[in-house]
Amino acid sequence: MYIDGFSGFSVDDTERARQFYADVVGLDVTTGAMAGLINLHLPGGGEVLVYPKGEAHTPATFTVLNLVVPDIDATVAELSSRGVAFLHYDGEIRTDDSGVHRGTPTLAWFADPAGNVVSIIERDGEGT
Predict the structure, then answer these.
(1) Within a domain: 127
(2) How far apart are CA 27 and CA 61, in angstroms?
(3) 82's torsion region: left (phi>0), alpha (psi -120 to 50) or beta?
(4) Given strand 38-41, what is the order of strands in its sheet?
(5) Would you call 54 helix, strand, or coil by DSSP?
């Protein structure tokens, strides 16, 4: 029935998003087929469409993208050195001083320049 699929989310400025996801996060990012669109190429073959909404953009109130990493502490340190500020939670989900929730799974969250929430999730190759 289906031949393919992909996810997408909006931003207020796709050029700023392109620079962030390519230069800071380190993903392979290409310009979409239509003007103003970008594609995030994920390790493992997935793809995410990022599209502009300009001033009409409202950041998602949920995680829009999850990136799996083998070592969360090393990834937090690397992204922090590139200017990424990790989100801190002190409710049912709690994070430590570096912004890492050390539970099952172990993960951390940060916002992209448009305010959308992205997570990194540690996986050791045996599952999440």
Answers:
(1) no
(2) 23
(3) alpha
(4) 7-11, 47-52, 38-41, 28-31
(5) helix
Give the amino acid at 27.
L
Q: What is the pLDDT of residues 54-109, one digit of tens each?
A: 899 999 989 999 999 999 999 999 999 999 999 999 988 999 999 999 988 999 99
Could you give the CA distance from residue 103 to residue 101 in angstroms, rounded to a whole number? 6
Number of domains in the chain: 1
Residue 1, helix vs strand vs coil: coil
Q: Is residue 87 part of a domain?
A: yes
Domain with residue 52: its CATH number is 3.10.180.10
pTM score: 0.90
Judge whether 33 lies within some domain. yes
